Amino acid sequence: MIIGLLFPQSEDIESSGSRELQGAFGAVTIDGKIWNQIALRPVLPFGKLSIAFDLVLYIDQNGNIHKDEW
Fold first, then answer.
1. For the segment 32-56, what is each residue's pLDDT rounded down to a tens digit?
2. Where are the alpha helices (DSSP H) in the chain?
């Protein structure tokens, strides 16, 4: 089961080569344990192409980072 909220954070796109940054936070269940999720999703333009990253951290109630994601 995955439960989360998405709050996009991006500037107005005036040209097709603008950079974007979106983010999300929420809670997920992995192997029966609840983890807090923090995600950043930057989009970097390179000419006519863009590269998008999906950077996600899962943190438990003790501040430990879920190691299987790295």
1. 999 999 999 999 998 889 898 989 9
2. none
